[in-house]
Amino acid sequence: MIPADTPSPAPQAAEPRALDEEAIFRLVHRFYDRVRDDALLGPVFGGRIAPEAWPVHLAKMCDFWSSVLLKSGRYEGRPLPPHLALGDDAGEAAFARWLALFRPTALQELPPAAAQAAIAHAERMAYSFRLAIAFHRGEDTTRIAP
Ligand code: HEM
C-alpha cells in the first residue's frame, strides 16, 4: 500500500521555471530541429546553411534570443538582409509555417510570460520582414496584414 504522506510524483513535462541561457539554448535547438524536419522550411534552410555551418547559425540565434529576452546585447547583426535575399522562398506560407513551429516550441521551452514575449517579438519581426519583402518587390504593401 502507498502511505498517505507519499509525495505526489513530479509532473512528467515540468513547466520551465526560469528564463535563462539554458532555456534559450533549448528553445533555439528544438525550434531548428523542427524547422529542419519540416517539408516546407527544411529545404529552404538546408539550401542556405550547409551541415557544418549549423552550429554557427544556432549560436547566432542563441545570441539573438538572449539579446531579445535577457537584454544581453550579444546579437549585433542585421536580420533583414538575409531574409530579403530569400526570394520566392519567403512567401506568406513560409512565414505562417515558421510561426506555427515557433509558437508551440516557445510555450514548451520558456516560462509562460517569456514565451508570450518571444512569440510577440517573432510575430512583429515576421510582419516587418513581409512588409519589407513586398516593398522591395514593388508590391502593394497595404494588402499585407499583421
Ligand atoms: C519564412 C520564414 C523565415 C525563413 C525562411 C528564414 C530563414 C533564415 C535563414 C536561411 C537565415 C540564415 C541566413 C544566412 O546565414 O545566410 C536566417 C537568419 C536569421 N533569421 Fe530568419 N527566417 C525566417 C523567419 C524569421 C523570423 C520570423 C525571425 C524573427 C525572429 C527570424 C530571425 C532571424 C535572425 C535574427 C537571423 C540571423 C541574421 C544574421 O544576423 O545573419 N527569421 N533566417
Task: Describe what this molecule looks like in 3D.
- Helix 1 (21-37) runs antiparallel to helix 5 and helix 5 (92-109) runs antiparallel to helix 6.
- The protein has six helices and no strands.
- It has one domain: Globin-like, CATH 1.10.490.
- 60% of the residues lie in helices and 0% in strands.
- The N and C termini lie far apart (57 Å).
- By secondary structure, the protein is mostly helical.
- Bound molecules: protoporphyrin IX containing FE (HEM).
- Residues 41, 44-45, 48-49, 57, 60, 64, 77, 79, 82-83, 86, 89-90, 94-95, 98, 122, 125-126 line the site of protoporphyrin IX containing FE.
Question: What is the CATH C level class, in words?
Answer: Mainly Alpha
Q: Return the average pLDDT rounded to an integer.
A: 92
Query: Can you tell me the CATH architecture?
Result: Orthogonal Bundle
List low-pLDDT spans: none
Total of domains: 1
Bound ligands, each once: protoporphyrin IX containing FE
Determine the strand fraction and express it as a percent band.
under 5%
Summarize the biggest pleated sheet: none
- Tally of strands: 0
Instruction: Tell me which oligomeric state these chains represent.
Output: single chain
Shape: globular
Helix content: 55-70%
Tell me the CATH topology.
Answer: Globin-like
Question: What series of H and E elements makes up the topology?
Answer: HHHHHH
Full CATH superfamily name: Globins
Structural class: mainly alpha
Radius of gyration, Cα only, in angstroms? 18 Å
How many helix segments?
6
The N- and C-terminal alpha carbons lie at a distance of 57 Å
